[in-house]
User: Fold this.
Amino acid sequence: MATQRRTELPQWQALRERRQATQSTTIAALFAAERERRRANTIEAAGLSIDCSRHAIDDHTWARLFELARACEVESWRDRLLAGEHINNSEDRPAWHTALRTPPRDANAAKKIAAQRVRAEDFAEQLRAGRCLGATGAPIDTVVCIGIGGSDLGPRLVTEALGPLSGAPALHFVTNIDPTELTQALRHAQPERTALICISKSFSTLETLENTKAGLAWLRAAGVDAQRHLYAVSSQPDRAVSFGVRREQVLDFEDWVGGRYSVWSPCGLPVMIAHGAARFGELLAGAAELDLHFANTPLERNAPVRLGLLGVWYGNFCGSATRAVFAYAQRLRLLAAYLQQLEMESSGKRVDRDGVLLDTTTSPVVWGDAGTTAQHSVFQFLHQGTNLTPVDFVTCRSFATSSEERERLLHMNAVAQADALAFGDSVLGAGEAKPIYAQAPGNRPSTFIELPQLTAQAVGALLALYEQRTFVQSVLWNINAFDQWGVEIGKQLLKQRLAQGAPARG
Assistant:
């Protein structure tokens, strides 16, 4: 039986009315009226601090939002997700990436997941110790990870976020089918000391396979037994073997792990190679702690639920079409790109779970860059532009008291920008009146997220926070966050053109 459209729920109608009644409410007025506003609107979760005070949303509006969450059965859907039920209805399987970081109650599943992780960690430690040898007996000192989408974005983000490689081989990522990226990765590599790792869930992604073929050709041109240097990570190990990878050199994982959620699986092999099995375990532990918060915390103090409700409030009731994410930590510079896939692939849907065309909007456009770089490019748009763009600021609390002055300045910049967006010129106090073209009106919303430090555990919690936020939004919209059928049409058309012998040029 089809469920009631979300827009027909009385709670949805109540929020429309609430938006009309509060359009003139300002962030500054709420702060003036609520002495403890920042404390009351800040949530601590898995070591993260999430400050939601700089939104023009009062307690009455929050109450209506939580009523919507309950009407949409967010708690029930959360429990089904964490229990491994088949909530990916279009593909009839679970979306059980949380089982990769918290052992599930199903003993067989837990045993299989643990075995897959141990194999990946053992291989990574062999590489790190110089015990992985190429065809000539020389130790591997260069690893080229070839993937695209979730097979690249998550591992690349985390590898960079955790800082310089610690005693590991040189590590390169290749994703674009443009030959330039692979050429650059191999420029200083020695074939007899280089390993290719093809990371592909389906082991049918054209860009990944073509780049792998090019890497193999490079090895063969040097007279190296290429097969000895080729490894794979896939949920379809038989396809990898058919491609030419030795079975003992294939790391596998379950097909219910979505690509954009796969960094927690053996697809996180680059993280293990770069930083070691122990730090990968800390990454999983941070995510598991956030999952525990999500599972057990009442909606009113539940960080992913709050963030998901904010997304629906701005997108569906305030007319916002975008959300910006600025990481005030250079090592998190890839966060916005990672979140683009996570949110826009998960939530970019036009029909609900019942196959009915939606009568409301879903995913916003997610964009951003690293602070303070972005302050000198896009913040003009945020401070004085005509679009309503909620902002996420992400930084580290430890920067505020760092012995490095530039880190202290980085943190101060993040706070200053959040306050300037919220309060406009009023933050500067009384002074000479500015001409209208120089005025910043404020009342621009933002969420301020602080990691305690840039550790593996904190990064794991941060990524899990955004994963669960995305899931909450999908429940509020009644869409499936775990399929991506829209990605397939371009792939299918390319295959059709290749089969017909069409020229590369249109």
